[in-house]
Amino acid sequence: xxxxxxxxxxxxxxVTQLWAGILLGPTAWAVDFVVSYAVTQHECSTGAxxxxxxxxxxxxxxxxxxxxxxxxxxxVLPEVPIHEGTVLARSRAMAIAGMWMGxxxxxxxxxxxxxxxxxxxxx
Length: 123
Hints:
The protein is mostly helical. The protein contains 5 helices and no strands. The protein has one domain.
């Protein structure tokens, strides 16, 4: 028999899912930003664009994975008012935040990747 929904979101895998949904988008953006800065000199000297493009594609996928985790958690939770102050209300707020943060950071990563795909790293 499965444990009650409130217990699932109090501790365990569901809490990890909520935090992953919130943190994957910003972390993917930060790693992509640092990697693209770090490999610019190498890419300029070799003319290859492999690292820039690969890091951007992986970062978008990771950010979208975070959005999916938030979306999935949101659809498991019942419709409760966020201001209620219960475990389910907190979990629903975290799920919504994770969903939107994942989408927002995926959009930021794409916006920062467009010049990397169109221009040379030496420009």
